[in-house]
Amino acid sequence: MITDQEILAIQNNKNMITDQEMLDLMELQASEYSGMGGDLVAAIGILVLSRFYGWRVTRLVASRRQWKVTNEIFGNMRTMTPERGKYARKSVGLALADKIGDYWSYMRGQKNSKEDPKKSRHMIVDVADTDAK
Fold first, then answer.
1. Between helices 19-32 and 37-53, what is the axis angle to 10°?
2. Which of 60, 68, 111, 127 is disulfide-compatible with 105, CB 3.0–4.6 A?
3. Residue 74 and residue 108 in one domain
4. Alpha-carbon distance 116 to 15, whole Å?
């Protein structure tokens, strides 16, 4: 859960673009864009939501293709928007990703672990089974 102090740090993030810079960027890209209109609409939505929820949340909800298109249109979302925005705490998906993040890093071979990944997988399945009842 994100604290009020973390929210203040996010709002003071010097790497994050300002509201006016975001509007200027959207106007520039809208005027110069040629391609599928739906891609531009989705990219603008991802940019705006990333300001409020952070790029981690929007990365979770956007498709891989749409995330790539958004970064092609607007640039690197990770440098323009906070990692976790002031509403990131509302994301159940992010909370779940935080809990199982080490498991997925291990499965991708990005992290060594002494823990058996099968136990982690079963733990997640057991939690899901409990919630379903």
1. 170
2. 111
3. no
4. 39
